[in-house]
Each structure stands twice: as C-alpha cells, then as structure tokens.
Amino acid sequence: MSGNGQLRGRTAATNPWVRPYVLTSGRTRGAGELLVHALVSAPGYDPQFAATLLPEARALYERACTSTESVAELSAHCGIPLGVTRVLLSDLCSAGRLLVDAPTAAASPLDRNLLERVLDGLRQYA
Amino acid sequence: MASGSTLNRRPARRTSVKLVIAGGFGVGKTTFVSAISEIPPVNTDNWMTEASRTVDPLAVGDAKTTTTVAMDFGRITLAQDLVLYLFGTPGQARFWPMWDDLSRGASGAVVLVDTRRLAISFPAVNYFDADSDVPFVVAVNLFDGQQTHPLEEVRDALRLSGEVPLITCDARDRRSVAGALTAAVSHSLRHSGAGGRHGALAAR
Ligand SMILES: Nc1nc2c(ncn2[C@@H]2O[C@H](COP(=O)(O)OP(=O)(O)OP(=O)(O)O)[C@@H](O)[C@H]2O)c(=O)[nH]1
Ligand SMILES: [Mg+2]
Fold first, then answer.
1. Could you tell me which residues come within 8 angstroms of residue B116 by beta carbon, excluding any fewer than 6 positions away?
2. ipTM
3. Which of A42, B8, B70, B189 is 20 to 30 Å from the Cα of B28, by its Cα?
C-alpha cells in the first residue's frame, strides 16, 4: 500500500486517514468482494469474543448480531468508513463470527426469478 | 467464479437486490429515494471521507464536497425474504470509482434528468450507456408536475438509443417512484434470459 506516503509529516492523532490503515493492518485488498447491499447476520452472539475486539470491529459485530443489515447500513450506523467496514466484516466472516447472505458474485443480479419477485413486491406500491 | 473467497457464506435465507439511482446534481435523487424508502435515506459522510481520500485528497475542506458527494441509500422490504436497496450515486465525474462500486451487482438503474438542466445528467447517461453493463432507464423528474418538453426531444438531446426506456416521474410521489422502479426492473428483465451475456457481465 503506497498510500501511507501521503501521511508524512502528520501524526496519527491528527491525520484522519491514519486510523483506517491501523484498524485494518494496512489491508485494503480483497474486501471489495463484499457488495454494499450484501446482507450480514450472525450465527449467534458471543460476548467473550466481542470483548476481544477493537471498538470498530466490536460495534459492527454487535450490530450485526441484533439485526440483519446490509454492509452499507452497518457502515453508516456504526459510523465506520465503507472500506474499513468491508475489511473488518470480511475478517469476522472468515472467523465464522458473521455470515454473508446472497448476493454473491456468482448469483446474477439479472436472474429472471429474482427480478420477477421484485416486480411482484413493487406492485404493492403501485 | 470468484474463487479464493474466504467469506463464510450460506444458502440465502434473505436476498437483497440493488437498484442505482443516478443523475446530476440536484435532479431529485434523494427526494426519489425518500419517497419510497422505509428508512430515512442514510446520508453517509463516511463514504464521502473515503471517496475524498482515494480519489481526491485535495477536496477535503472544500465546502462544495459536502453537498455533491454525500450519497444516500434507502431500503424497501418487498417480502419477508427479499429486500430492495436503492443507492443514489454522487453526481460528480471524479467520483466515478464509487459509481463502479455502487453499480457492481446492481439489478438495474434509474437515471434521473431535469429537462431544465439536461446537461447535468449527461455524465450519468454516458456512464450507464458506455461504461456499465447495468441496464438502465431514464426518468424525467417532473419538477413542475408537468411535462415541458416532448419526450422525443429529450431522447434526441440525450442521444438515447431506442432501446433505452424514457419515462417521466414525480420524485416526490411514492406511486410514481414505484412506477419508475418497475420500469427499470422490467427493462432489466428483458436483459435477463438464461445464460444471457448481460447477466454474466453485470455480475462481473
Ligand atoms: N417541485 C419539485 N421539487 C423537487 C422535485 N424533486 C426534487 N425537488 C426538489 O429539488 C431539490 C433537489 O432535490 P434532491 O432530491 O435533493 O436532489 P439530489 O439529486 O439528491 O441532489 P444532490 O444529491 O445534491 O445531487 C430539493 O429541494 C427537492 O425538494 C419534484 O419532483 N418537484
Ligand atoms: Mg441527494
């Protein structure tokens, strides 16, 4: 990650860009796969595990344990930038602590059945 | 497909679908989303921060950034196991990397235009016309409740191919917004087809 170059001359305390890198150990790759509208839920809440998490990861974990929300909603409600949210959620999913429901990259957003169900659903607003 | 994922996935109990609401500054994107969303459109400062960092660090502190980059999304629960998300795109071209992100996996798009200021929506039309595989419709937001320009004139001015549906809507009216969304999804359905080219591309 060459982005750290722009941090020269500023301290972590005053530079708003430092914290995300710290939080995610510099990783920004590989998290893009989580689509903004992917739904995240939890198989169960583990308070002992929650206590081991940094505040941001903990906030996301606890929020996801109380309701099934999209990546975007979790980011917004926890006040954590989207890129950071994706990395932290990916970690929690890898650890089996959170689950991502469809959509996956493999499921077509243009699936006929899916679109027809959306049309059915929209009819109640017509 | 995308292998190497370490994400813990399971068969979907709930499915989410995304439509993108695009268009130039002030065309009514937020109004459109608010009209039908069951949650107040979520206005995301944090996304703005991220966009500024990755795309244009110099934009930080620019007062204009706040209005133009802030982006909204709304949610509509269509069935117990089906949630529709609407994502508004930030207007400016320099935030196109975010458009790619928002469009990825989208089931369709509505590009809003204001006929009094048609040009501000050119970039959005261009984007979905040329740079994206997401099927889109163009919706004229009827600010004054009436149509001031014949749709054929609008189609010509936007250089829209006959294949792209051009409709009108009132972004403040829920039924009208639902109609625009229905038009978009119906159009996407025409791109659907088994093993269709667009399906694979749109999911890229
Ligand atoms: N009269 C009328 N006013 C509208 C309509 N749609 C939007 N407006 C107004 O137009 C202004 C801009 O609407 P927004 O929904 O904020 O537009 P936007 O596309 O989200 O704007 P940005 O996010 O800043 O690009 C607001 O003051 C709305 O109240 C409409 O159909 N009729
Ligand atoms: Mg807006």
1. B143, B148
2. 0.79
3. B189
Ligand 1 atom nearest residue B71's Cα = 23
| Contact status, residue B31 vs residue A51, Cβ threshold 8 Å | no
Contact between B49 and A103 using a beta-carbon 8 Å cutoff: no
Per the CB < 8 A criterion, the answer to whether B25 and B68 are in contact is: yes
Name which of A90, A106, A115 is nearest B7 (Cβ-Cβ): A90
Summarize pLDDT for B95-126 with one digit per residue, the tens: 777 888 899 999 999 999 999 999 999 999 99
With a CB cutoff of 8 Å and minimum separation 6, the contacts of B140 are B112, B113, B114, B115, B147, B149, B151, B154, B166, B167, B168, B169
Q: Which ligand has its closest atom nearest to the C-alpha of B72?
A: 2
d(CA A21, CA B128): 33
Residues belonging to chain B: 204
Give the residue ranges of DSSP H helices in chain B: 29-36, 45-55, 63-69, 96-103, 122-126, 151-158, 174-190, 197-202
pLDDT exceeds cutoff 90 at A108 = no
Question: Does residue B176 have its Cβ closer than 6 Å to ligand 1?
Answer: no
Instruction: Enumerate the domain spans of chain A.
Output: 4-125
Q: Is B172 in the pocket of ligand 1 (CB under 6 A)?
A: yes
Convert the pLDDT of each residue in B1-46 to its tens digit. Answer: 444 444 555 544 789 999 999 998 889 998 999 999 998 777 654 4
Closest Cα to atom 1, ligand 1: which residue? Answer: B143
Are the C-beta atoms of B199 and B136 separated by less than 8 Å? no
Q: Which of B96, B150, B131 is nearest to B202 (CA)?
A: B131
Q: Which domains does chain B have, with CATH numbers?
A: 12-203 (3.40.50.300)
Nearest to A89 by CA among A56, A120, A111: A56
